[in-house]
Fold this sequence. Notes:
Elements: H1 12-78, H2 82-88, H3 95-140, H4 152-159, H5 163-166, H6 168-185, E1 193-195, H7 196-210, H8 224-227, H9 244-260, H10 263-285, E2 308-310, H11 311-319, H12 321-325, H13 332-338, H14 341-354
Helix pairs in contact: 1-3, 2-3, 3-6, 3-9, 3-10, 3-11, 3-14, 4-9, 6-7, 7-10, 10-13
Amino acid sequence: MQFNAPAVFLTTEQCATTIGVYLLGKYAQAKLQELQERDAAAYIAQARRQLHFESNQRTCNMTVLSMLPTLREAIIHHLHSESLTTLLKTKPANKVEIWEDLKIISFTRSIVAVYSACMLVVLLRVQLNIIGGYLYLDNSVTKNGTTPLAPPDVQQQYLSSIQHLLGDGLIELITVVKKAVQEVLGPVSLKQSLSLQELEQQVLQVRQLVEGENHGSSNHRPLSLYMMPDEENTLAAQACGLTGSDITTIKLLNETRDMLDSPDFSTVLNTCLSRGFSRFLDNMAEFFQPPQGDLTPCSSPDSLSHVSLPLAKIIPIANGQVHSICSEIPSHFVQDLLMIDQVKEFAANVYETFSSDHELQK
C-alpha cells in the first residue's frame, strides 16, 4: 500500500509571518552592509586626514627652519654688536662706554632671539594648521564646485602676515626687551662676577618686566601683539574696496587672533619660552667650567654653582647665542621646541577644529 506525504498548507497568517521574517532579514543585511561601508569610509577618511595632518606638521617644521635665517638677520640688523666689537679692537678712549653698550645689545639680542624663535614656532603651528584644515576640506568636502575655503591667493596673503613678527612686531619686542635689560643689567658692573644661578636670576627679572609680571594689567602688553598687528590695522588701506579674497583673508586673520588670545595658546607659548630660556642657559653653562685643577672624577653639574665669571667675559658668550638659537640647521634649541608634546597636541587641536565639516557652516 502506498502512502502519500500529507500536503502542508500554510495559513495566510503564517505566510505573512514568513515573508516578514525574510524581509526583516534582508533589511538587517542591508543595514549591516551600510554600516560596514560607512565605517570603512569613515576609517579611510580619518586615515587620509591623519596622513594630511602629519604631512602638514612636516611642512611646519621645514617652514620654521627656513625662516630662522631671516629672523636671525633681522635681529642682528637691529642689534648690530659687530660694529662695537670692531671698534673695541682700536683701543678707543671711551672703551668702558662701548663695553656698556655692548652689554645691553648682547643680552638684548639673545633674549629677543629666544622670544622670537618661540613665537615663530607656535605662530606658524597655528597658521599652517588653520590653512591645512581648510585645504583638507577643499580637497574632500567641497569637490562639488563650491567656493574654496583657502584659494592660493588667500593662502599667500594670509601667510604673509608672518612678516609682522619679522618686522614691526620684532622692532617693538626689541624696544621692550632692551628697556628691561637696561633696567636689570644696566647697574651691574662689568667687573662683577656672576654665577650661572645669578645669571639665571637676571634673565628671569628681564622676563618678568617683558611679560608684565608684577606690573599690573594696565602695563601688560600681550605677547600676541608682537606676532600679529592690531585688528583695526589689518588691510586698512583697502578698507574701502575689499575683494572677496581680502574678506576671506581677514576672516582667517581674525580666527588666528582668536587662537592667539586663547588660554591654550598662552600655555603652549609659555611652555616654549620656559624650554627656550632653559636651553639658552644650558648653552651658556658650557662656558662656566671649573678650572682644570678643580676637575675631579666626582664633578657634577652642581659644581657649576661655584663657578663665576666677570660680566665682561659673559657678554661675548651671550652675544654669540643668536647664531645657535636661530640656526636653520636643526640645533638642540629648535629641536627642543619642535618636539614639545604640548606644541604637538595644540597643533592637532587646531587642525581638528579647522578640518571638521562644521567649519563650513560658519
